[in-house]
Amino acid sequence: MSVESTDVLVVGSGFGGAIAAYYLAAGGARVVVLERGPWLSGQDFEHDFLLGSSYTRVFDFVAGDGMSVLSGNCVGGGSVVYFAALPRAPRFAFERHGNIGKRMWPAAISRDTLDPWYDRIAEAMVVEQQTWDDVTYAGGLWAAACDHAGRTANPVPVGVDHSKCTHCNWMMAGCRFDAKRSLLFNYVPAAVAHGADIRPLHEVQRISRTNEGHYRVHYTNIDEEDYRIHTGEGAIDAKIIVLAAGAGATPLILKRSEDTLGAMPHAVGRYFSGNGERLNTAVLNEDRVRDVLGLDRGNGVAYEANQIGNGPVVANWDRLDGSLPEYSRFSLEQLYFPPGLGTILAQAPGAADPAWFGPAKKAMLSRWKSWLIIFQMIEDDNEGVFGTPPPTGNAYRISQQMLGRGVLHYDPTPNTLRGWAEADAEVKDILERDGLAEVTPWTNDLVGAYTVHPLASCRIGDDPATSALDDRHELRGHPGIFVTDGSSVPGALTVNPALTIGALAERAIPGIVQAARERGIAVSYHAPVPTGFTSASAAARTTV
């Protein structure tokens, strides 16, 4: 097996990976990016759920023991499949103690110190505060219900070009209209323009050391149709490694590398957080929507608009109050979740167990246009722990795309359960008031709890006993290896985490550049925020 060499090897091309690739390449370093998933762009995104469509190709769904994780699997990572909600984390999130009894975040990081880095990522993603004119009908209904119940409601800041958006609600399968501002329109093409070599369908398995004291990254090539098939293998030597494979994969690469790298910090693969996520489905009573809220969208229809929109547009943030005790703070966000898991896991109101299956569920499905889905993000207890890694990848693959069985164990603590219960009660109080709807949470019986925003499995911190990384994202005991994806975020944020992950990655770049220079790489940190780029052309793609 021949071994290539580069200055910097980046694993993953989501927020953590693409940002690092751009700045290091723009600074003069030779950069190779290995991405497990395919490289797709607007014309490739399909509006169906067929096996082999973009929907099954760009997702990775891994069912663990008590927790399942849905994440991106493509160039651009989670930014291609996210709902483009880009709020900043509330100030109290950085002061959390969680289950360690002291501040989880490094002393060097607070909302104030992170704000300049938030500003940079917000400029690149073109984050815009939506107005009420931008709000979809489903979001407006949620806002009206909140107002009726004496609560407030807020349009969510997003990365969406409303002039291009068709409100098709296929955002999770990628945006074929190029309305969603993903990394395919900024950091990825900017990295390519500066010489970064992005290689899709390359799955990193482990890291070893070279005789020169550098690192060797071992990968396998993935078949473009059946991800269970490996079509080749290779290795690349690099002086700096940036791991950004996601909170469900990065710790497993490191744990699998212990035989060749040496012992990992205790926190690698521990303290996993699902960002405290949970979903509730409300089945609206159309007559009560009309009579109580006074809503009507024409032709005598009061609502029946669950399928019309573009992701989350309105959130209730009344409980994002730093004066409240920890585990009692959460956000409630209106969300469209497309058919699939959204229909399977929804429970029928008032039905006997199993409430997710049977005649009552069938009747509920017949009224799916009258659904309103509410996304909760609470403060969980970082109770997830990864077991022994599978022989390859982050899961035992079940199907040719998307599905796998993982090694994550998650047993929610009383703190987490109480947080979910308080959020459930709040949703019911808002939406069941005056007979507007019947509300039930999604079941945890089939796939355990679930998250689309995995965090904290290799988190930053000041205490070596409870954090895998120091405050500049360098892996303890392994100089030159950095982690910049969601696994570095210390804990649940109570809001969508994409902008925070990006801000932390932006903040980490000067330290990575300094470490690279110390290891003999001629690189500088001077590049501006990448704006004005278009999606990388097919000619720029590397598929070998």
From TrEMBL:
Keyword Cell cycle: no
SUPFAM superfamilies according to UniProt: FAD/NAD(P)-binding domain
Keywords attached to this entry: Cholesterol metabolism, FAD, Flavoprotein, Isomerase, Lipid metabolism, Oxidoreductase, Steroid metabolism, Sterol metabolism
InterPro entries: Cholesterol_Oxidase, FAD-dep_OxRdtase, FAD/NAD-bd_sf, GMC_OxRdtase_N, GMC_OxRtase_C
Residue ranges annotated for the Glucose-methanol-choline oxidoreductase N-terminal domain, each copy included: 66-270
FAD dependent oxidoreductase domain residues: 7-42
Pathway per the UniProt entry: Steroid metabolism; cholesterol degradation
Required co-factors: FAD
A GO BP annotation: cholesterol metabolic process
EC number: 1.1.3.6, 5.3.3.1
GO function terms (MF aspect): cholesterol oxidase activity; flavin adenine dinucleotide binding; steroid Delta-isomerase activity
rRNA processing in keyword set: no
Pfam families: DAO, GMC_oxred_C, GMC_oxred_N
Boundaries of every Glucose-methanol-choline oxidoreductase C-terminal domain copy: 408-505
PANTHER family in the cross-refs: CHOLESTEROL OXIDASE, FAD-DEPENDENT OXIDOREDUCTASE 2 FAD BINDING DOMAIN-CONTAINING PROTEIN
Family: Belongs to the GMC oxidoreductase family.
The name this protein goes by in its record: Cholesterol oxidase
